[in-house]
């Protein structure tokens, strides 16, 4: 198979479309230029040899780029495309009210994502735009305090990134994580294969990744258990959280339970982020939030960026903060 056919295979164009298109265009320009030169001069052989060298260099650069940002060992490609990036800029700007800040934070979040996955154990779950959207948006929504609760963490790498993004904004974040640490990514009603990274989902991996966030990561409080378990809730419902990330059980019932709990422990003005909202793979997430917003609730829907919904908690508490 020649290089152009390889780059245009269904797998390559799906996983690395922007790079493949760029290389195709460069190769086509080089081929046209070489043909013109060969037709007009007697140096056709030299031109062909130079073209072969340039094509080989482009292929090696593409391979290097793919190893750095491609999906190998993490399921999702980190290669950017212009249209989704511009859309994300607009969505984050709509939430934050500041286009320049949105572009700055999304860019910083992308660099952080690549760095963390290069140095850490495991991966950050989700698509590139969704991850960068969450990391970039949360600090811009000015949470009322620096207490963060993440329900469902996988490898803890997203939390490490969020700590860094909050610190970039001059905050002093304090992190609490709730996760069952079952050795793999759990979702009721689904069959989850081993993680593509080959790393087990456990507290040791999370601690390793949190160490990349410095003192705030080392000081993180981790509670092993399911978020619907009364003992788990009681153990971490000792404070009002300024940021709550809901990314655990994606079933409608599970999300509804987590949202109910979040209402009892969210500080006035808290930012609540519901991951995978509007993702067709997880319809229960949108179903649960839409149902919640139809009734009595502390939450106001601020909008969405990529596949995450952003909520603001009112100052009124519907249920005592003990969560009992």
Give the gist of this structure.
The chain has 324 residues and is of the alpha/beta class. 52% of the residues lie in helices and 14% in strands. Strand 4, helix 11 and strand 5 form a beta-alpha-beta unit.
Structure description:
The radius of gyration is 23 Å and the shape is elongated. A 7-stranded mixed beta sheet has the order 3-2-1-4-5-7-6, with helices on both faces. Helices cover 52% and strands 14% of the residues. The chain is built from 12 helices and 7 strands. It is α/β, with parallel strands linked by helices and 324 residues long. The protein has helices at 3-7, 10-40, 44-69, 82-96, 99-119, 128-140, 157-168, 203-210, 215-218, 230-236, 252-265, 283-294; strands at residues 147-151, 174-179, 221-224, 241-246, 266-275, 299-305, 308-313. A hairpin with a 2-residue loop joins strand 6 (299-305) and strand 7. Helix 5 packs across helix 7 (157-168), helix 6 (128-140) packs parallel to helix 7 (157-168) and helix 11 (252-265) crosses helix 12.
Task: Detail the topology: elements first, then pairings.
Layout: H1 3-7, H2 10-40, H3 44-69, H4 82-96, H5 99-119, H6 128-140, E1 147-151, H7 157-168, E2 174-179, H8 203-210, H9 215-218, E3 221-224, H10 230-236, E4 241-246, H11 252-265, E5 266-275, H12 283-294, E6 299-305, E7 308-313
Parallel strand pairs: 1-2, 1-4, 2-3, 4-5
Antiparallel strand pairs: 5-7, 6-7
